[in-house]
Amino acid sequence: MTIGKALTIAGSDSGGGAGIQADLKTFQELDVYGMSVITAVTSQNTLGVHGVYPVPIEGVISQLDAIAEDLSPDAVKTGMLFNQEIIQIVSNKVQKHGWEKIVVDPVMIAKGGHPLLEESAINALINDLIPLSFIVTPNIPEAEAITGIEIKSFDDRKEAAKKICQMGAKHVIIKGGHQPSGSEIIDLLFDGHDFYEFKGNYVNTKHTHGTGCTFSAALTAELAKGKDVIEAVKTAKEFIHLAVENALGIGGGHGPTNHWAYKRNLAASK
Ligand SMILES: Nc1ncnc2c1ncn2[C@@H]1O[C@H](COP(=O)(O)OP(=O)(O)O)[C@@H](O)[C@H]1O
Ligand SMILES: Cc1ncc(COP(=O)(O)O)c(N)n1
């Protein structure tokens, strides 16, 4: 039996809804073997972020090297990278080990407003990581921070997508969760030539903690299985939609999504 192998390089969320925890749960649900490199430990729950503790750089290097020595990931995603030094190390190692299917989720700010990336690291993200990426998955505020384009309309989003591809990304998907279009949320994919829209109903809920992490992890899992980008985005959108629609109602704030929902729905429809 061959099994896809996916690696997440991201921060730990003690609350279990975002970060490494969301990524590994998603990999597991999509039948992909999950591995992790932890860049920072965060103390978080559904109410907010209490603290951020970056892993010493030798610890990040050592985790990356241990994986590279023995386990070759079929796809890799990055999430919370926290600072310039970590971004540069990740960039070096990705090149050194020849890892190719790189999904860059440019995590910058937690839903409650707490920064998860130092502002001084945005240039490193642009110069050192985006050019290596197979796909970048910003939300609207992240796309604005990367491009300097204020995004108010769908055309602004298209302009920002073009700019991100010009920075060297093979694909970009600008997610629409922060700007619902009526009753729908549209995620916009650009492959350097054409635009593709992925639509889903807007679910009126405050339980969206970890949506970005879960979406990019599902995308990574599908790429690790060898799916093409369109198929992978389609599955990721379905996965996150069901996860939000069937949120667990855990915690007093922005609760986690339901990582079981996609597989249970699939099983029920058979
Ligand atoms: N309320 C919602 N209902 C349905 N889908 C959502 C909702 N919020 C976010 N999503 C989906 O979750 C993913 C992440 O969206 P977004 O909120 O834009 O990013 P982030 O979580 O990084 O801020 C996207 O695929 C988006 O379509
Ligand atoms: C460790 C970690 N990584 C990422 C996020 C962003 O979460 P979201 O996916 O809701 O934007 C988070 N809150 N914590």
UniProtKB/TrEMBL annotation:
NCBIfam families given in the database record: HMP-P_kinase
Reaction equation(s) it catalyzes: 4-amino-2-methyl-5-(phosphooxymethyl)pyrimidine + ATP = 4-amino-2-methyl-5-(diphosphooxymethyl)pyrimidine + ADP; 4-amino-5-hydroxymethyl-2-methylpyrimidine + ATP = 4-amino-2-methyl-5-(phosphooxymethyl)pyrimidine + ADP + H(+)
InterPro entries: HMP/HMP-P_kinase_dom, PM/HMP-P_kinase-1, Ribokinase-like
BP-aspect Gene Ontology terms: thiamine biosynthetic process
Annotated source species: Aeribacillus pallidus
Record SUPFAM superfamilies: Ribokinase-like
GO molecular function: ATP binding; hydroxymethylpyrimidine kinase activity; phosphomethylpyrimidine kinase activity
Keywords: ATP-binding, Kinase, Nucleotide-binding, Thiamine biosynthesis, Transferase
Signal peptide: none
EC number of the protein: 2.7.1.49, 2.7.4.7
GO-annotated cellular components: cytosol
Stated name of the protein: Hydroxymethylpyrimidine/phosphomethylpyrimidine kinase
Family: Belongs to the ThiD family.
Top-level EC class as recorded in UniProt: transferase
Domain of life: Bacteria
Pathway terms, separated by semicolons: Cofactor biosynthesis; thiamine diphosphate biosynthesis; 4-amino-2-methyl-5-diphosphomethylpyrimidine from 5-amino-1-(5-phospho-D-ribosyl)imidazole: step 2/3; Cofactor biosynthesis; thiamine diphosphate biosynthesis; 4-amino-2-methyl-5-diphosphomethylpyrimidine from 5-amino-1-(5-phospho-D-ribosyl)imidazole: step 3/3
Domain Pyridoxamine kinase/Phosphomethylpyrimidine kinase intervals: 13-258
